[in-house]
Description:
The structure holds 2 protein chains of 2 kinds.
Chain A: H1 2-6, H2 23-38, E1 45-47, H3 48-53, H4 60-72, E2 76-81, E3 84-89, H5 92-99, H6 103-115, E4 120-121, H7 122-129, H8 133-145, E5 149-153, E6 161-165, H9 172-175, E7 180-181, E8 184-185, H10 187-205, E9 206-210, H11 221-233, E10 256-260, H12 269-278, H13 289-302, E11 305-307, E12 313-315, H14 326-329, H15 353-359
Antiparallel strand pairs in A: 1-3, 2-3, 4-6, 5-6, 7-8, 9-10, 11-12
Helix pairs in contact in A: 2-4, 6-8, 7-8, 12-13
Chain B: H1 9-37, E1 40-41, H2 42-48, H3 53-65, E2 69-71, E3 80-83, H4 85-89, H5 94-104, H6 107-119, E4 122-123, H7 124-131, H8 180-192, E5 196-198, H9 207-223, H10 231-253, H11 268-274, E6 299-302, H12 304-323, H13 326-340, E7 371-373, H14 374-383, H15 394-400, H16 422-438, E8 445-448, E9 451-453, H17 456-475, H18 478-490, E10 493-494, H19 495-502, H20 506-519, E11 523-528, E12 538-543, H21 546-574, H22 576-582, H23 591-594, H24 597-629
Antiparallel strand pairs in B: 1-3, 2-3, 4-6, 5-6, 7-9, 8-9, 10-12, 11-12
Helix pairs in contact in B: 1-3, 1-21, 5-6, 9-10, 12-13, 12-24, 13-14, 13-16, 14-16, 17-18, 21-24
Subcellular location (chain A): Nucleus
InterPro entries (chain A): RNA_pol_Rpc34, RNA_pol_Rpc34-like, WH-like_DNA-bd_sf, WH_DNA-bd_sf
Region (Disordered) (chain A): 1-21
Amino acid sequence: xxxxxxAPLEPVSKAEDAVAPAAEDxxxxxxxxxxxxxxxPEGTTFFQRDLTSMxxxxxLNELLNLVGDLSNRxxxxxxxxxxEPCWKLRPKDIAEKLRRLVPDERLLYQHIDNAHxxxxxxxxxRAKTNLAQPTVTKYLKSLESKDLIQAVMSVKTPNRKMYLxxxxxxxxxxxxxxxxxxxxxxxxLIEVAAKVIGxxxxxxTCIRVSGTWNNYASSDRQAAIAHKKAQVKGVPDIEEALxxxxxxxxxxxxxxxxxxxxxxxxxxxxxxxxxxxSIQLLRGKTVRESDMEQLLEMMVLEGTLEKVTATAYxxxxxxxxxxxxxxxxxxxxxxxxxxxxSDEGPITARTCAYxxxxxxxxxxxx
Amino acid sequence: xxxxxxxxPILAELCTFLVEDMYGELAARVFSVLAxxxxxxxxxxxxxxxLTSSQISLGLVILTxxxxxFHSPSTEPIVFYDIDWQQSYSLVRxxxxxxxxxxxxxKKSANVISNLLTLGHTSVADLRKAYxxxxxxxxxxxxxxxxxxxxxNGDASNGDTSLVNGSSHDEHDDEVLGSPEELYSIVQNxxxxxxxxxxxxxxxxxxxxxxxxxxxxxxxxxxxxxVPTGTKDKDRLAHLIMANKRxxxxxxxEVPNFSSRKRKANDFDHGSNKRTKVNGQGQYGSAGGFDHxxxxxxxxxxxxxxxxxxxxxxxxxxxxEQRISYTTARLYEILLRSLEKSIPRCFEDYPDPFPANIExxxxxxxxxDHVVNTKDIAQRAKIIGLDICNGLDPNAVARITxxxxxxxxxxxxxxxxxxxxxxxxxxxxEAHLSLLVDHPLRFVTWHARGQYRVDFDLMAKSLIxxxxxxxxxxxxxxxxxxxxxxxxxxxxLDERQLCNTMMSSANDVRGIVNDLTVQGFxxxxxxxxxxxxxxxxxxxxxxxxxxxxxxxxxxxxxxxxVRILQRIAFERxxxxxxxxxxxxxxxxxxETKYLKQTELDDLKKWKEVQExxxxxxxxxxxxxxxxxxxxxxxxxA
Lengths: 366, 637
């Protein structure tokens, strides 16, 4: 179906109506054909054999007449698929509107229709139709006011107005990917998605190790012997003093810490995209591999993920005791008037309120 | 002008403060004249200052002794003086150097090094005399001070602590040297490890003088004094100049042939044949007239560049501890320490000049000196009794020790790290190293089977970036950091592309771009598309240059340090009277007896304040080291 829609269009009004039997008869029968087609799912493409099989037209000639009639009333949209003519239905109200258009308007409409969800730029329209700029502008406006087309700001080229049919949803190239909403990034959505993906990546690349994972009893025999001796003798012997034990950071048995897995299977962009689609987080939107890559790259910039290789990402371990650096941890690093601070004048080290607060001392009154 | 020798007014101010604090007002006055007016002759110094000729001489002597000034070679008729900024700034690191040495060797070595720091440079004989004064009433040794036992900077009584040693150490017996032999072996050890170097006249050469001499040498050797003309010859000259500079400098690091401690003391006569000639022409080495050993003439000083190497290692280890785990950090520390001996400096000051043609540029090659063996690390970890199993994925440990892991990651059979076999230990160490390899900062790189390499140069750049990001993160938000990273990754971007990369709306970004521009971290650029300059018809790009941001942050940090020093001075001034009272000879030591409770409280508060400020000063120095000392200027593409 989709391939049919991309097929080049040819305004096929070739269905010659050589002999015109009773005009009303054709119209009514054409309406019957239209009704029959409308029973099919929306957007179905009809080929000649489909129309024949509806058994409304008695022979091929009549069918051609019927189709010609419908096409003239804009109820059928003629298309071509691999050299074979085919048709699509148009809703009646739109066909009604189309019938009232002037030829130039109709020409514009046709071009915009061709552009499908990608939309077409007004300048490109002018080039295609060879109409003068004011005419194009005028007719585009009138088409817009008739609710036939819509103008959308393109995401790729922000100062271009792209025109597409009113009932279509702009494609991702025009309206942006799943992360965008009305041309702007949907920060709330991105945040949630990043969190979900972050958790997923963490699950795959990290492992939580409890404090008691390796609860060995130190089997330092010598130390144990020395200890025992000291207990027996009551006085510790200098020569048997315990060797200096290295410092071990205190282990809290309930504390657990995150450790990178050894030899993990790093999640791929495609896998993560599938995962996000499968949990249906973004209603109605699907995430492609490239969208996921964009999100992952952003998370790398944000510092929640880190790149291991070109395509593999893993979680950044939470930093134990975040210290920044000597400069920003001192008052000067965050001082709003740092650039105004000088050796003398109203703002100096002597009169500094921040130093006073930090050191819990007093400063000179400026 | 060499990169490290570029100074800014704020650095001049900072260094003047440091000099004043360490060496008194006179030296600081002379220093500040040089700092303000740059390279000049004595006559000009005396014109610019209100000092008498003898005062200037005295000041210059102090500065020269401490290597704080350069002077032109003695062959020149007129002597110019200029400040050695690198050395002047490193005054702030004195305490750190002593601390590093103590950590690596022992308290005695730390004592020797801190005396060397105080004395500037000294001959071994003088140092010996300072430690072991001759019994008869001969003149007092170097600078008239008996140094043994008293830690030179540690004699902080109450208020007038010099900057370097914020905390005064208690005296311990293990700081006292037993014999001159012990002193010699300590000095030899320090020289071998690169902490102490020989003094040479070339160390007093400013960058230009050094360049001229190296150039002249190259010309004399290759072209008989004539200046070559061809392009190829000019390139060759540039290479030779750098090679000469490196040769001059590397001679300082040479370990002189000490009359070995293994030989008996009566072999001294033979030892003298083996001694390498001191570059300084012995002018500073005033050998005493009694039982002197051949290395007495040797004039030594502390290697200013080594401290940066140790600071870099310390910084890297703390990063690993923060980002990976405690145990991995300890192993990394072992690894870096094992390399330290062969690394005299952080980056090559005199690299071969860049080829004009970009294709001729030599491929970046790993430094074979920076390779370590896993087995050595495992061995060392065993000696210090590190629990090497910690900080790893239990599954990895289980695989190595043929163990099993329960569902919640607990080993079914606990593993005592001290009972592991050598092979198992090596494998566990490998597992830690692979954590380091995988980290985006690339703490180590796989070199060959069982061998790993540290690429310091590559890391130094990311460290700078890291610190800039940290600064922005602490001041602003993650969004600002994200912005910097996005720009770093993509280069110049317009607003739209920037929003796309960051996945946020233009409104959120705009304000932050503004703030960062004002702070000097980010630049904006306007490129007109037409010949008129019209906002609508121009492209507006936002870009970020690490080198610029680096210099800006460095400048700000210097300024922050100046403010801290000024604050210390101010805080001291506030309790000036009390301090002078507490420092009276009868009061010092008996504070509780003579001082009132409020005075004692004030004194305690002052000490706390001072300590806090000094600590912060040292931490800002860590930042300075990252920004300035670990790699040369970054070229922007």
